[in-house]
Amino acid sequence: MLASNASSGLSFASADPGSPWRMYLEQIDRVLPHLGRLAAAVETLRRPKRVMIVDVPIETDDGRMVHFEGYRVQHNLSRGPGKGGLRYHPDVGLDEVMALAAWMTIKNAANNLPFGGAKGGVRVDPRALSVKELERLTRRYTSEINMIIGPDKDIAAPDVNTNEQIMAWIMDTYSMNVGHTATGVVTGKPLALGGSMGRNRATGQGVFFIAREAGRRLKIPIKGARVAVQGFGNVGRPAAELFAAHGAKVIAVQDAWGTLYAERGLDIPALIQVADEPGGVAASGLGERIDTEAFWDLPTDYLVPAAMESQITEQRAARIQTRAVIEGANGPTTPAADDVLGDKGITVVPDVMANAGGVTVSYFEWVQDFSSYYWSEDEVNRRLEEIMVDAFARVWDIAADRKLPLRTAAYIVACERVLDARRIRGLYP
């Protein structure tokens, strides 16, 4: 008999117990007792299928050659091609990208989308590059990972500091390399290149849909609710706008530059107009600027972390005064913080349910590209709401029946689907 070297991690993963990959592994450990016979195959979920690290050299505008490190991780492809965003950030690293890819596996399976999980990143501060340098970076990165991406292999999408223009450059570069136009290699593209109506607002819209559904079950009406939103980008802005439009009071917004507070509620449409100006929301003059850490002490009905991972730590969780946390970001709550919030009776709606709007509409875009038939925005929004509401209802019922946190219930649904697909497919050769 051959000895197995199976373990619960990877030799090149961070040993920091607070790292995103270790967070993901702990989440898998917590669902393990609920998987029955499928638990025997859990190593499938503890190991990414494929990890690519690439050198991304570019020529700067002044003629120098500089190098950046890029990543593309395909965590699991048992249920379909890889699907996940691409982020540009100076702190991007392999540990983070692995975790983000794994969370995409869970998210896609929990919402029954026909994708596996993938994620990409380049360690770069895009604000330090000119537009031409950013284009060169994107095209070179695409060429370096060209052999593992494609409409039926791995489909990228916008994430932190990437947008529809970057998706257009990826699509064009890939198309030139394969010799034909391949619109389906990315989603989140401009409409002129096969993008979908409603994609830009989809993640924030999904956050609102799920908050509304949770609120109905928790008896927390949206109208009159006090809401705080961390992160005011592609997720936080539309989510805050929808909360406000439905009668909620968004009392605090935090971005990378600071925190803005107004007891009677901020003017969200006005804030959106000025949020990209120097100094961000805190410099807008539309409310009171408060200390960044004070954000976590505000009494609210809904708290929406929609920035980066690991924002709600055990220490912050002890201070949080809210009734429901709706995770707009990926991995914003550490497992230890989950325990603290649960002990306080605070409902946490996990990222794999709450922020699935973006990947759901990406699925719609992918389908539309294959068929060359495009839907209206009303149809996109209707289908988005239907899929997300149905998926949430299933997870809620499992959590209620088994008296489990929503995150554990979501992982039960997702892990069962992934591991069952792995079981049915078998191993080759």
Give an overview in words.
The protein is α/β, with parallel strands linked by helices and 429 residues long. Among the domains are: 133 residues, 3-Layer(aba) Sandwich (Rossmann fold); 153 residues, Rossmann fold, CATH 3.40.50. It has 14 helices and 13 strands. The protein has a seven-stranded mixed β-sheet. Helix 7 links the parallel strand 7 and strand 8. Helix 6 packs across helix 7. The longest helix is centred in the last third of the chain and has 26 residues. The N terminus is likely disordered.
According to CATH, the fold-level topology of the domain at 202-354 is Rossmann fold
Helix content estimate: 40-55%
The string of secondary-structure elements, in order, is: HHEEEEHEHEHHEHEEHEEHEHEHHHH
Q: Give a quick account of the main beta sheet: strands, pairing sense, barrel closure.
A: 7 strands, mixed
Q: How widely separated are the two ends? A: 18 Å
What is the beta-strand fraction?
Answer: 15-25%
Extract low-pLDDT stretches: 1-8
CA-based shape: globular
The total count of strands amounts to: 13
Q: Supply the CATH class of the domain at 202-354.
A: Alpha Beta
- Rg over alpha carbons: 21 Å
Structural class: alpha/beta
* Overall average residue pLDDT: 94
CATH superfamily of the domain at 202-354: NAD(P)-binding Rossmann-like Domain
